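Quick log. Single chain, no ligands specified.
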Amino acid sequence: MKKTWAGVFPAVTTQMHRDQSLDLDSTAKHVEVLIRHGAAGLVMLGSLGENVALTRPEKHAVMRAAIEAAAGRVPVLSGVAECSTAAAIQYTRELETLGADGLMLLPAMVYKSDPRETLAHYASVARATGLPIICYNNPLAYSVDITPAMFEQLAGILNFVAIKESSGDVRRITDLINLLGDRYTLFCGVDDLVLESVLLGARGWIAGVGLAFPQENQQLWEWAVAGEWRKARELYRWFMPLLHLDTPVKFVQYIKLAIQEAGLGREWVRAPRLTLQGAERKRILKVINAGLDSRPLRRAARRR
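-> predicted structure:
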């Protein structure tokens, strides 16, 4: 089961109303914008999608809305971030019924598993489904590290097709390729490491801040994979203050605020997250609005 997933797969936010109820219409509209700007796939209900703050029926509703909006044009995946292996298997089987094209598998939440337990969790979920899987490795956020040696142990399970590499150490890309060749498609999972990741061999980008800047996000990707390094570097340098918003603890609030300022959605989040206020809000708005005011592609279009 070798999927050819590659390119930009935005990690789509779950849009909400002020009262924290789901705003499925806004979520679907944002999906349309992202596809129109070149997204090659969609990852719903990842960390940015506030997966663990949603009920199971809400997750189903989000997936149905996204699948309907995508209408077969791009693959639609769901994050799987349950607290137990049994719950992850159950939700994965529900994704099959919903018509999802695949899943992005996280470690079981809350409990910090050791390598043996982590491998057992991933293998058990994969063997319970025929859906293709992106393995999400983010030890900085989830305190569980899937090392290249562990991915070598998982390599015989064929529906593991890709890795979202978010360790924050771009050397991992070279280590994975040296050890495993092209066994897995490697996706960059950290926005402010994407250019370095492409140079080293990443073939996909599960993007965050680009939800608010889809045109620039796609152009950066296209220049990078085409080897247009001078153009890519220039755009990357403009983008970097915004891309840094992808890594702090409040990245969901920061990126949703950017989406709102760009006119593509709203900032409302599900508690215990709260929208930004005070000096922090002003600081993040300054970064976002500076980026909006200096968008290089818009300036180039005006010059033409």
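The first helix runs from residue 24 to 36.
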